[in-house]
Amino acid sequence: MDKFKPDTKNQLMLLPPSVEDFVPDSHLARLVNEIVDTFDTQCIEKQYSALGQKSYHPKMLLKLLIYGYSSGVVSGRKIATKCESDTAYMYLASMYQPDFRTINDFRKDNIDYFTDCFRNVVKICKQLEMVKMGVIAVDGTKIRANASVRRTKDKNGYQSWLENMEGQIQDIISHADRVNSEEDKEHGELRGDELPEQLRERQTLKAKIQQALTQIKGDEKRNLTDGDALLIKSHGEIKPNYNCQSGVTEDGIIVSAYVTNAASDKEQLLPLIKQAEQNTDEPTTNILADSGYSSYENYELLELQNKTAYIPDQEYALQSKRKQDPFDRSNFTYNAEEDKYICPQGKDLIFRGLWLHKKNKQKTKVYISKSCSDCPVKNQCTKGKSRQIYQELREHLRTQARHLLDSQEGKKLYKKRMHTIEPVWGNLKHNKKIKMFSLRGIKKVNGEFLIHCICHNISKIHKQRLQIRIPA
Hints:
Elements: H1 28-36, H2 42-45, H3 58-70, H4 76-85, H5 87-92, H6 100-109, H7 113-127, E1 135-144, E2 152-153, H8 155-187, H9 197-215, E3 222-223, E4 230-234, E5 237-249, E6 254-260, H10 269-280, E7 286-288, H11 296-304, E8 308-310, H12 319-323, E9 333-335, E10 340-342, E11 348-356, E12 363-369, H13 378-381, E13 388-392, H14 395-406, H15 408-420, H16 422-431, H17 442-469
Helix pairs in contact: 1-3, 3-17, 4-6, 7-17, 8-9, 11-14, 14-15
């Protein structure tokens, strides 16, 4: 008696199984199928013509892209290959096998539509009561652009490269002319329109360099491969990066997201909050962000909007260290009634006028002591003739933020930031292996980032469903 099960792969079936039989009810592909079916794709469908061969439905291609990104498969070629062998992809594709060009062209041509997809998924999360907008954590991370750092140059660098390129082109043309003359003698006349491959490549590159030179202003640098990708420092390295921004609720749902090529995060705080409130149709009251988002302008605007800012300034972490210096400004007492500072030696620093910062145009109050000349500790306190203190007119807003962060409730609330938004970046960059964008240009990169955010939110829905079905 044979103790092993027989090999039956060649056995015919009376009733062939459906592809659905190979996809479990709890599979992520079924959730992607269900969610995308709710999308309104009329704006895409009207672009197709009824003439000629029938096209793949936009929803089918959307399902493949979203499920592919959810599974860490972002290449159109790999998704097309999966449609031939992976039952989940076969299920979403209804057993069709779209060409990789069809998948890539659909993504490229409809990149703006992913903004609507992102909003739709956020609304679904809200309907499932997965979005609480009382607290929102804001953060950004740098992700590599699909471009080489060697192709980022300033005007002088490109001018030198262009001169070198012209010399190479002339050498190739001269070589081609000699070869053609020799072949003409041996084989007769050629058509005369043959162009060596090396020459085509260099002429294309030359055209790109000339275009870049016309776009560069002043001392700025521009990347030849992706003109929107700027050199941004990340983890100690300066490379062509994009600054990815997002706002996340306490439940870990991304409610606002976009990509910028600005290195600083300060200007991104208000747009992120505004987008989050538009996507959810609900206001938020408490804002959690790191010191990269702190500025007097942000503190002021958040207060005008009746929002509480739990945002440390750049010097907040140094408070305890600076207090150890007896002559640090933090050890000077401010008397609001008389509008003056009192130094550790009991001497007054009197208000002497306003000073306008040349760069940021901030108005600053200047306080100067008249009693420094006979002070026994003057040399420890200041190197100038007298000790001066500068107070920004909105400094009370920074002080208010510090008091909030130092309170018991503030410490408890700010800890949530670490457990709210950091796992999002961990999931995208570690679990999903997002090290570099596939597309180029800020518009396309923004669309691709939104696909990643859509997939993150769908995975949260999927996880909630599994928890409901499987009792703890």
